[in-house]
């Protein structure tokens, strides 16, 4: 392919190594690409606070599509420039439908700034230490008067693929369901909100067609960008559903798979 004008990349399991760091090789490749005129956009399930830490550690700036497309974030200004929240009434319908088929499921709300969780939600992420706040009961999630970037559902019993299948059967028309590989963790957005939908709007505003975008990802929530972009690469460590749907492959995140492709497109760093 010719040199792309935009590089759209997932973070966990894709651009970042398993220890959540960016390797020197990958950082050099990104800087070479941007010096050649390409724009790098992080397209991630992560909230803005996570990309803030990445930006501080690497010096990378630009734009991030966060929370699976619910938020567009300017890293330099540390400002959300666009958002599509999940309506509270829709969130309540999804909770009722999913609870009826997965009795042990617990719920949390990602606001983009922090996570509010009810007692049945037992998942704790080390990187969210200091950003997680408990509420006394499930009903209190809806009285917090905060925008819902994502509704999170967690089960200690079901893995993410089984939980996704259960949710789509119970409430598939109510919201957008996906997962990014978290243990027993389902991510729920407003209807129609996907990584690709938000990225497409961003590209339209910049006059960049899909054919001039190269995308990288590893999980089911990345499938929309990998199939929308003119060129999509599945990581060598990708989820089976991604490997089955995306023709192009690169190395694993531990092998600097993104850097390997960028070095071919833009020359060695």
Structure description:
This protein has about 270 residues and is of the alpha/beta class. It has two domains: about 5-85 and about 195-265, HAD superfamily/HAD-like (Rossmann fold); about 90-190, Hypothetical Protein, Haloacid Dehalogenase-like Hydrolase, Chain: A, domain 2 (2-Layer Sandwich), CATH 3.30.1240. Helix content is about 35%, strand content about 20%. It has nine helices and 14 strands. It has helices spanning about 10-15, 25-35, 50-60, 90-100, 160-170, 195-205, 225-230, 240-245, 255-265; strands at about 5-10, 40-45, 65, 70-75, 80-85, 105-110, 115, 130-135, 150-155, 175-180, 185-190, 215, 230-235, 250. The strands form two sheets. An eight-stranded mixed sheet has the order 5-4-3-2-1-12-13-14. A six-stranded mixed sheet has the order 8-7-6-9-11-10. It is globular, with a radius of gyration of 18 Å. The model has no long low-confidence stretch (mean pLDDT about 95). It is an enzyme of class 3 (hydrolase). GO terms for molecular function: hydrolase activity.
Predict the CATH topology of the largest domain. Answer: Rossmann fold
Tell me the series of helices and strands, N- to C-terminal. EHHEHEEEHEEEEHEEHEHEHEH
What do we call the CATH homologous superfamily of the largest domain? HAD superfamily/HAD-like
Widest β-sheet, arrangement of strands: 5-4-3-2-1-12-13-14
- Rg, nearest Å: 18 Å
CATH class of the largest domain: Alpha Beta
- Count of alpha and pi helical runs: 9
User: What fraction, in percent, of the residue positions are helical?
Assistant: 25-40%
**Amino-to-carboxy terminus distance:** 19 Å
Instruction: Tell me the β content.
Output: 15-25%
Shape: globular
Derived structural class: alpha/beta
The assigned CATH architecture of the largest domain is 3-Layer(aba) Sandwich
Number of strands: 14
Number of domains: 2
Q: Mean pLDDT across all residues, rounded?
A: 96
Largest sheet: 8 strands, mixed
Provide the low-confidence segments as ranges.
none
